[in-house]
Amino acid sequence: MEALPELYAIFQGEVATVTEYGAFIKIPGCRKQGLVHKTHMSACRVDKPSEIVDVGDKVWVKLIGKEMKDDKVKLSLSMKVVNQGTGKDLDPNNVSLDQDERKKRMFRDYTSQKITLEAVLNTVCKKCGCKGHFAKECFVQPGGTKYSLIPEEEEEEVAAAGHERDKKTSLADNSSKKRKK
């Protein structure tokens, strides 16, 4: 078997073929080729790899992945982490490669989940007694501040009318107490 470069090794290779998804690079010292995907050609977005490289171009690449599939070794290369003029490693600790991998793994498909809206405005919490949330969503600490929803205008008018009625009765009670003295 041919000697392949070590993982994260940098070398200069020749572009063998260019496709719509990337470019295949001949690895010096062996007959293998590695793929530079269009996402690893440049730090900028690449729509057409043929605008970046042509067949026969010499490019600096870094070996970023080896994968065994169907008894074949597939090699992943990157041009964006290597200075194309000098061949210097722009990502010596492989930080940007790790970030790229994390971005790929963190993607979740939320299209299949349905959004449901619940009417919780007229509910009363069993924990604190306030309106507008359930007990499982209550954040009140024992002896802490209690919060509830602000009543709507109609409710305010009814409450204000009841409050005025209470004031009048309390004033009448106070005046009758004064007369008794």
TrEMBL record:
PROSITE patterns: S1 (PS50126), ZF_CCHC (PS50158). Keywords: Acetylation, Metal-binding, Nucleus, Phosphoprotein, Ribonucleoprotein, Zinc, Zinc-finger. The keyword Zinc applies. Residues 155-181 are annotated as: Disordered. GO terms for cellular component: nucleolus; ribonucleoprotein complex. SMART domains: S1. It is found in: Nucleus, Nucleolus. One of its GO terms (molecular function) is RNA binding. Residues 8-80 form the S1 motif domain. Interacts with PNN. Associates with the 60S ribosomal subunit. This is Zinc finger CCHC domain-containing protein 17. It comes from Rynchops niger (Black skimmer).
